[in-house]
Amino acid sequence: MSPAVKNNTAEPNLDVSFQDYLVLSKLVFDWADSYDAKDWDRLRSIIAPTLTVDYTKIGLKRWDNMAADEYMAMVTHPGFLGDKTIKTQHLLGQTWWEKISDTEVIGHHQLRAAHQVYETVDLETVKLRGHSHATNEHYYRKVNGVWKFAGLKPNVRWNELQFEEVFKGLD
Fold first, then answer.
1. Considering only CA atoms, which of 145, 152, 64, 143 is closest in space to residue 107?
2. Model confidence over 54-101: pLDDT tens digits?
3. Which residues carry out catalysis (predicted)?
4. Of 90, 109, 131, 138, which is the active-site residue?
């Protein structure tokens, strides 16, 4: 997805209908809250059949057509958000919406992702904390007339505390 071009300028098209704005706002809330609640059924219900996942700015790779099942496997992996000893809160700041077409929108979101890792799954003793401050591009696509989350591209501004020790990895 790329910015719409008007009169040979790269000014974004902000012409998102109010109804789409409301639906997209709920969609980004559901994305964040499903991560934090580890509500994988809700997450699955809002994602597109294929997603663009661009983790190049955080040292990983870009997947242009990641299948929904692959995305779910990655997110729910025990080395990532599927770790039952990790609690998160993905707190959204300001957002603006860029209309690419009638079926594609990019959401530009400010994000603070707080992470707390516990010693065990009983969640009684905190082992470490690590937080990330970022902006995210989120991709949204209409599938059969319904807006779906279709991927993301985080741009980390900075991490704090022991963020690099939060996740075990996707091996």
1. 152
2. 988 776 789 999 999 999 998 898 888 888 999 999 999 999 999 999
3. 90, 115
4. 90
Helix segments in 14-100, DSSP class H = 18-37, 40-46, 68-75
Does pTM surpass 0.85? yes
DSSP for 105-116 reads EEEEEEEEEEEE
CB 130 within 8 A of CB 159: yes
**Domain-located, residue 171:** no
In a domain, 63, yes or no: yes
Q: Which residues of 75-112 are buried (b: 16+ CB within 10 A; e: fewer)?
A: bebeebbebebbbbebebeebebbbbeeeebbbebebe
**Order of strands across the sheet that contains 146-161:** 62-67, 47-54, 146-161, 126-143, 104-118, 86-101
Q: Give per-residue pLDDT as tens, 98-123.
A: 999 999 999 999 999 999 999 999 99
Is 136 annotated to bind a ligand? Reply is yes
CATH of the domain at 71: 3.10.450.50
**Looking at the chain, how many residues does it have?**
171
With respect to residue 49, please indicate whether it lies within any of the assigned structural domains.
Answer: yes
Tokens of 1: 């997805």
User: Any catalytic annotation for residue 115?
Assistant: yes
- Establish whether 109 is a catalytic residue: no
Domains in the chain: how many in total? 1
